[in-house]
Amino acid sequence: MKVLIIEDDVEIQNLVSYFFKNEGYKVEAVSDGLDGLKTLKTFKPELVILDIMLPSLNGKNFTKIVRDLPEEYGNPFIIMLTAKTEIEDVLEGLGLGANDYMKKPFDPRELVLRAKRIQSGESRADKKYVFAGVVIDDDRHLVTENGIEIELSKKEYDLLYLLIRNKGMALSREKILDKVWQTNYYSGDRSVDIYISKLREKLKSISKNIRTVKGVGYKLEERK
Prior knowledge:
This protein is α/β, with parallel strands linked by helices and 224 residues long. The protein has 2 domains: 2-125, 3-Layer(aba) Sandwich (Rossmann fold); 129-220, Winged helix-like DNA-binding domain superfamily/Winged helix DNA-binding domain (Arc Repressor Mutant, subunit A), CATH 1.10.10. The protein is 42% helix and 22% strand. The protein is built from 9 helices and 12 strands. It has helices spanning 10-22, 33-43, 59-68, 70-73, 87-96, 108-120, 154-165, 173-180, 191-202, and strands at residues 2-6, 26-30, 47-51, 77-82, 100-103, 128-131, 134-137, 142-145, 148-149, 171-172, 210-213, 217-220. The strands form 3 sheets. A 5-stranded parallel β-sheet has the order 2-1-3-4-5, sandwiched between helices.
């Protein structure tokens, strides 16, 4: 199994590399996110050990890029290393597509054990995307709101998935049509507006977070 370690603390990088190599893994290690993307293409690891706080490209943005472009970067398992202990930070990392996380300081033996469980298929965290009380469990194609399952049509699901994966970004109606309906045709077609209304109706807790951007389209944003 190939493991890519992306960690800017040299001592941690060397320590983690040692333990994985000692267990027979092929290891590459880099110190920043951009080098990590380049190495991901050439080394093609099954697992990435990823620090969140990195120079040039942080771990969260790295994860988003990799999950948005699987044809280019593959679909490796990602274990995040984080000094942050707030649950919101953990949920955000998992929501972006990380499979697991470990809080610093950590025991490298536990990290290797988690990697082995992933390799053997004994444990794989579901791919989950979280916004407020809404969770998309993409492995099970399931949406819950405050723990209660919400029934969505395929188009509603795909639209919600697109909004959550691009939270904070204004998405034009044309882009939404392209991604959800696989067409860029837009001429008086109110399909996007209709389905946005359906989502607002079904997901009351985030209905006000789905904001209309005049002259553009829609975006999902945090509300203070």
